Structure formats: structure tokens, C-alpha cells
Amino acid sequence: MDWHKRAQEELQEKAEWRDRDIQALRDLVVAEECLVCSISDEFLIKFLRAKKFDYEKSFKMVQRYCAMRSRSPQNFLKSLPSLAKDTMDCQLQNVLPHRDSLARRVFIFRVGKWNTVTTTPEEIFSSNFMCLELMAKEQKTQISGIVALIDMEGFGWDHIMQLTVEYIRNVVSLVQNSFPIRFREIHIINESYLFDVTYALVKPFLSEKIRNRISFHGSDFESLHRAISPAILPRDYGGDQQTFNNCQLKEALENLEDYFQELQGFGYTNNIVPSEVYEKETHPFPAFCLSGQLPE
């Protein structure tokens, strides 16, 4: 595959302009008071590719990426491989070793395997964030994007009761406008009627673009296989590969301890985020909190 050609066709990336583009974004970042993050080429190119080299949109994403930590620091307390071992040992997430037919990474998240007694929602957020960071470091993935497979088998009221609108908003923000990776497709499988309850809360936060990229398959693996080839899927999903095992993922994350340690220092000084970083956000249930008493 000609990755340079693909980057130019899909992202408007031109090799002869790359240094100029990175410097333009760097100038915006440096000029932003109280914003603390890397200004390296490697860091900034991720945002430019995620926003097809639109300087202003790329800078907005850098702001939101850093603002996530300042607005919700609790979601990042365990975002170090050394602190997330227990969560990763639960076999909730995996990045498949083989890319799909369009050379995209496939990320699997088994929500229903989450033990709400031993693992907090914030720890789930931290571990998912690290998985995204791992994929976003790959230049091929910056260009091609990723496919997410969300397995809802076992998802129940114990999970729903852990969620708040604020937490859901943070998760959606990670997917659609605050993280430098392109979610090309999102596939939901093994969803039950309880998923409808959660999706009703999530949907108002989703952009039309993201909503159009979500597919629901139920327990129909044939439907799933039309989107993701069984040749790269684990046996758990009717695929040809070994059963689900994230040992390679855990090892890859452990090798990036220093990188994640550096990220811990990113954010806004004194956690003061400029109001213009976020547009006014609305939700039909602004005070709805599932971790407390259900509304009458």
C-alpha cells in the first residue's frame, strides 16, 4: 500500500508542506497561555492527520485533548501501565494483531466483562485511553484510522448504575472530538434491551457523523463478518484467530511506561480551561445520574 498517496488523498497531507503545517500548529500551541503539552513533530502530526490538516480544527483538538485531564483528572489517575495492571488483567480490551482489509487497526472492548466490584469507571477510562494512545503512535493508524468492536454480552444493571451523564460525555468526547485518532467504524454486538437504556443517554452527545458510523449486529456473527473479516477475528467472534487474549497488548503498553509518564504532565495550568475550548453542551437529561437514584 502506498501510504504517502493514501495520506494525500484522504487527509490532504503533502510531504513538501508537512514541516510548514507542523510549525503552523506549533505556533498556535505555543501562543496558548497555560496550555502544557509536547510541541514535537511526532505529537503534533497526530492532530493534523486527525483533522485533515486544518490548523484551527487541529488546534481545537489539542486544546480538548489537554482539557480532558484538567476537567476530569479522576479519569487519568490510572493511565500508567504500572497502575493499570489489574484492569488489563481482566481481559476487557485488545488490539488485534492483524489489520482489516483497509489496513485499519481493530480495537475490541468487552464491556460486559467489567467487574464493577473490583474496577471503577475511571479505571476503565484510563485503560481505554492507553489503548488509544498505543494505536495513535502508529503512523499507519494515524492515516487509516481504527475500527472499534464493542461487545455488550453480560452488560447489566450493575454496569448501568455506574454511569453518570458526565462520565458518558467524557467517553463520547474521547471518541469524537478530543483524541487524535479517526474512528472509522463502530460495531456493537451482543447488545440487549439494557443497551437501549445506555444508548438513549449516549446518543444526544453523538455527532451525526459518528451516529452514522455505528452498526448494530446483535448476536449475528455473519453480519459482523461482512464488516470485519473472520480471518482476523478471534474464535470468540467466529473468527480464525486464537481466542481473545491481550497479553501482547499488555506487553506493548508496559514498554511505554515513560511515554505515559510524560503525558501525565499535560493539561492546563491549575486546571483552568478557557471557556471557549468547549461549545455550550446540552443534554435532554442534564441532571440525570444513574449512579444515584433513578428519576421517577
General description of the model:
With 296 residues, the protein is α/β, with parallel strands linked by helices. Helix content is 43%, strand content 10%. The strands form 2 sheets. Strands 2-3-4-5-6 form a 5-stranded mixed β-sheet, sandwiched between helices. Strands 1-7 form a two-stranded antiparallel ribbon.
Termini distance? 56 Å
Radius of gyration: 19 Å
Rough shape? Answer: globular
How much helicity do the residues have?
40-55%
Order of secondary-structure elements: HHEHHHEEHHEHHEHHEHHHE
Mean pLDDT over the residues: 92
Task: Tell me the major beta sheet.
Answer: 5 strands, mixed
The total beta strand count reads 7
How many DSSP helices? Answer: 14
Beta-strand content estimate: 5-15%
Major sheet strand order: 2-3-4-5-6
Please identify the structural class as seen in this structure: alpha/beta
Spans of at least 5 consecutive residues with low confidence: 282-296
What secondary-structure arrangement, pairings included, does this model have?
Blueprint: H1 3-11, H2 18-31, E1 35-36, H3 41-50, H4 55-71, H5 85-88, E2 93-95, E3 105-110, H6 121-136, H7 139-144, E4 146-151, H8 157-160, H9 165-176, E5 183-189, H10 193-202, H11 208-211, E6 214-218, H12 221-227, H13 247-254, H14 257-263, E7 267-268
Parallel strand pairs: 3-4, 4-5, 5-6
Antiparallel strand pairs: 1-7, 2-3
Helix pairs in contact: 2-3, 2-4, 3-4
